[in-house]
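My current task is to audit a protein record that another person submitted. I need someone to confirm that the token line plausibly describes how this chain folds. Take the sequence as given and treat only the tokens as open to question. This is what I was given:
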Amino acid sequence: MMMKRSTLRTLLLHTITVAVTVAVTVTVPAVPSHACVGRKLILGSVQTGRADMASRLLSILINERTGTTVEVKFFEDAAGLLDAVGKGKVDLYVDHVDNALIRMGRSGDSESLGGEERFKLVKRLFDEELNLIWLKPMGYSGRDAGGASLGPAAVVVKKDTLKKFPALPRLLEKIGTRVPLDDDRLDDLVKRAQSEKPARVARDFLKEVKLI
């Protein structure tokens, strides 16, 4: 006995509806509780007291707040670190405004500029020429071996990294805006790390200022 046309149409529509429902159920995954869990960042640093402590603060902050694994890769000197940055082997690192302008050959252009203007200049140059983004200053200034200032310190991040971690600036800029890390504060942490484990000192500080 032949099936009525209206009955056949009803069955076909039902089959299509079921198929679409199954397809949607299979292809829409659940959203994880931590979007960054399982991801990894490479944070470059020279292994000196101040740079070491700043890097530990940043790595612990990222890991605790996002679940992202952060590998701190230490270099013997700034030249080795900057070479790795240039080759794209480092996702983020801490740089200093005046020192960066010298490397860019723009120190003469910036002599008459104030601190905020120099920061804007280096931020623009790195963005346009190196695809690196400067975040807001952290609060302290770098010093060379002779004690001369290298300018305000700030985290510098690859553009490609920020595409994968768009919330990173808002998190890292809490150090410097919500909790200024000035010279005295950083030097105190470095001093404490001489008698305690540096990672413990960094973690305790972040807890004290309620960043983790």
